[in-house]
């Protein structure tokens, strides 16, 4: 996917943008912007794309992204549900490079791969993050700095294997966005490389090189990971049989689905589901209440 350059509304009047997002969907394509970003997911489940990383997300996640790191969250549509997040974006260079802030700059450097903070370690920081959209001016500036300083003491997990450069060409964005949208709309069926190449006006060989360069792996490996992550969610949140889940995720062969699931998750789909007994009932109750 090629990320879209997003224009963030910061400028002469302010260098920090803090807001609460609440809509039916996270509708931003795979994009990037020259500001750093801290995102807290309050409600919604789905798939997140951070650099070359693809994986599920759920409420309670706190993610830090360095400037120009391509990213997006794609929610799994559920009747009556909303996608809610708290987002803070700020310009590079607003904090002085002084010895006392060295841990903050080291954290931001690491965020070039996207950082997912440990939920338990970040529990005390979440109220501060959620409060940021209510602040303005120097109050917002100082509180954001406080949040970042506290995050330097939290454990985290890097997401993207690739540390994306700060000068990622903006023209890459529309291609990757179209590819991502195509996969989201067609993962249930067999997808041909020629379809995607034609979609972005490239030859199959050029497309393969482009995609591998952007995502760090061939397209069909990415597609398989995408399908398996969807299957994980379906196994937890529905009472569909393993076969129904496999077919719904685009696998024409049940043995092949089992093989790919075990390869990525280290266990069979049935064994994975047993780790989450009764979760589909909880999901149904939540949907009924919204």
Quick overview:
The protein has helices at about 100-110, 120, 125-130, 135-150, 170-185, 195-200, 205-215, 220-235, 240-250, 255-265, 270-275, 280-290, and strands spanning about 5, 15-25, 30, 35-45, 45-50, 55, 60-65, 70-75, 85-90, 115, 155-160. It has about 290 residues and is of the alpha+beta class.
Question: What is the element layout, followed by pairings?
Answer:
Blueprint: E1 4-5, E2 16-23, E3 31-32, E4 35-43, E5 46-50, E6 53-57, E7 62-65, E8 71-75, E9 83-91, H1 102-110, E10 115-117, H2 119-122, H3 126-131, H4 137-151, E11 156-158, H5 172-186, H6 193-199, H7 204-215, H8 219-237, H9 242-248, H10 254-265, H11 269-274, H12 279-289
Parallel strand pairs: 1-3
Antiparallel strand pairs: 2-9, 4-7, 4-9, 5-6, 5-8, 7-10, 10-11
Write up what this structure looks like:
The protein is an alpha+beta fold. The protein has two domains: 4-158, Jelly Rolls (Sandwich), CATH 2.60.120.280; 187-280, Homeodomain-like (Arc Repressor Mutant, subunit A), CATH 1.10.10. It is built from twelve helices and eleven strands. The chain has helices at 102-110, 119-122, 126-131, 137-151, 172-186, 193-199, 204-215, 219-237, 242-248, 254-265, 269-274, 279-289; strands at 4-5, 16-23, 31-32, 35-43, 46-50, 53-57, 62-65, 71-75, 83-91, 115-117, 156-158. A six-stranded antiparallel beta sheet has the order 2-9-4-7-10-11. Strand 5 and strand 6 (53-57) form a beta hairpin. The longest helix has 19 residues, at 219-237. The chain is globular, with a radius of gyration of 20 Å. The protein starts with a strand and ends with a helix. 35% of the residues are buried. Mean pLDDT is 85; it is low at 1-5 and 281-290.
